[in-house]
Amino acid sequence: MGKPNPNQSRLIAYELVSQVNRDGAYANIRLPELLAKSKLDKADKAFTTELAYGTLRMQGRHDYIATKFVDRKFSEVDPKIQDLLRIGIHQLTQMRVADHAAVSETVEVAKLVAGESKASYVNAVLRKVAVSNNDLVELAQLPNLQRLSISYSHPEWVISSFYDQLKDWEEVEKLLAANNLPATPDIVAWPGKSSITELIELGATQISGFPNAVNQVFLMLSILMAYRRNLIQ
Q1: Helix-strand-coil percent breakdown of the chain, rounded to 5?
Q2: pTM of the entire structure?
Q3: Among the four residues 21, 42, 73, 218, which has the most C-beta atoms within 10 Å?
Q4: Which stretches of 29-177 are assigned E, i.e. beta strand?
Q5: 157 is in which domain, residue-wise?
Q6: pLDDT tens-digit map of 146-159
Q7: Residue 209 is assigned to a structural domain of this protein
């Protein structure tokens, strides 16, 4: 039996999810540290970021899907298996990753962090997820609060608070959908260090109504260049 050879992007994503769920780590602080220590290129770092943050963001939905295919309550499943299933299900249901790659690569991570036996269990569950529909049409039968909580992976108390303010379930659902979109970072020109013109030349777009702020739609390389030139602090 060969030595486990996990893809580094998925291994780092697993490490982040595990550290957030088990150790209370802050994802926005810990992930940059993990990426900085890695040898991943820009594209692989972007993949890792999408997988790690996305898994955490949609964890409630992923847990609901996993519950259909495990042989006990999900809360009773080994913590390592829980997090492995979460990153596997995210690839299968939320990312443009081929099913075979999502399963096999996650299993390789499982072999390294959890051992062959648990990896076999992860493999079996993810294969079942891969051949299932996963559109969750059955949620339509649930009360709005439960349906939205599972669909959009938000705690029920948060959804209740939104409804208390909006008094409209359709508007609440729109808000939850928007809240699950990855945030686009914004940058503000630092007086004396940078100007809007310089940031726009790097590829940013100005934010309407905020004369000194731009939206980061350019590549991370441009940001690093700006730091090196002391444009941004």
Answers
A1: 65, 5, 30
A2: 0.80
A3: 218
A4: none
A5: 137-179
A6: 999 999 999 999 99
A7: yes
